Amino acid sequence: MSKWLLADNLVRLADDRAKPASEGNRRFHERRCGEGRKRINMKTRIIGTGSCLPETVVTNDDLSKLMDTSDEWISSRTGIRERHLVKEETTASMSVEAAKRAMENAGVTAEDLDLIILGTVSPDFVTPACACEVQAAIGAHRAVAFDINAACSGFMFALNIANAYIQAGIYKTALILGAETLSKIVDWEDRSTCVLFGDGAGAAVVCADENCGMLAFDQGSDGTKGEVLACPGRANNNPLVKTYQKMPYVHMDGQEVYKFAVTTVPASLQKTIEAAGLAPDDIDYFALHQANIRIIQSVSKRLRITEDKFPVSLDHCGNISAASVPILLDEMNRKGLLKPGMKVALSGFGGGLTWASAVIEW
Ligand code: COA
Fold this sequence. Notes:
The protein is of the alpha/beta class.
């Protein structure tokens, strides 16, 4: 928590405790609805981005030497031509690199960070959280750090959590990340999934801003369809239950996931764009989760927006789950595509099932 806010809150808390309950409640209400309104009007602005991909590139042709597949099958069905896979890199090491690049791009130091939220389904440890590893590595001593699991929507959920903290006036500056080493959880004997995924990390620094930032957000979950894209954890194993467990990997019903994506994503984007008081035509760029070019083309068709407004990184990255959106955003930022005042729609979707969209003013 930032010093100004912590001090402010502690004084008020002490004040409130010294007063009768009803007056304490009134003060609490005033803080939220009166004076707090100033903070609620604050927007969450992305002020810097960074990303990190593993050094080693594996092309579709490389994969066709390892399994019964072809560049023709993979690229015509997905748009993916190559992906980066880890050798020495880890989810944490890529996250740290992406974080440093985002902080440098934002012009902030680790001391400025109040909060670190990292979306991942492939951390290096069950505990500590990868976000805590990042905190330690960059020296963000003041920051609260934790991971979230919302699969391919992980970065977008992290963005929304940071937004909620910022709007509530609790924190001012946050580092949010999506980072994955999916190559360690996909089954390299299952050609229908392993060719789709890659490794990497993306990060953004967000801060409270009076003028521009997030205009609207939508997110949702449907746990009843969880099995269509799943990766089991460890099975029960204790003195009461002895389990022999084969290493669990990702399994996916590709066609169900495809149907979910091409219906939910345009609906969520439409809802978010309307909530921002805009029409799809007003959006300068759509930065979507990079799962499959055909999903992106379908969303563009349904929203009646030309494909040139949908930048793509999946051709050289594959699907990197929570890292896809921030890596794409970083590529757009570093290419100079994003100009102040531009409206950008972001959307993530995937395992859970989960989805999330946001409209931001750059
Ligand atoms: N190379 C060659 N052939 C392959 C293959 C590969 N890598 N993977 C599967 N095939 C074969 C199948 O065995 C099947 O052969 P058969 O007809 O002899 O049984 C055939 O290709 C068609 O398989 P199918 O699964 O029906 O293909 P599809 O047209 O549905 O495309 C996906 C598969 C995965 C590309 C597609 O379903 C998809 O993009 N789904 C969305 C997945 C996604 O984006 N997930 C992440 C969301 S976050």
